[in-house]
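job 3f2a | input accepted
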Amino acid sequence: MAISLRRARTIIRKALEKGREMDLKPLSVVVLDAGGHVQAFEREDGAAPGRFSIAHGKAYGAVMLGMAGGAQMARAEQQAYFMAAVNGVYGGQVIPVPGGVLVRDKKGNVIGAVGVTGDTSDNDAIAAMAGIDAVGLTGEA
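job 3f2a | predicted structure (141 res):
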């Protein structure tokens, strides 16, 4: 199973709706497939233009490592050398903080990741989970 464009757009829409509901700062949301390729992206009005790279880095790290942003951050705190090496391997594209959420199908297989940025990392993760939940998939923050 892959994340269809329709589902990716719904994930983004619902994540942005959750952000508005929580009165968060303007968000940017990216959905990646299981290979780390962009399926869809949106940046709200008022979000900084560099937010694509941050959202992408959060999601990219999650999907490429098979490890959600929260787990990546814990690993970075325990073994900074490991995350430095990972970033070397992936050309500095990994941002190991919450807001990078793995997406799993009903069988538990990783089928992609969602990256959200714009507010606190924890709030970004909440918005991502809302989008993923809305399409009936499982998120791992």
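job 3f2a | The longest strand covers residues 110-117.
job 3f2a | closed
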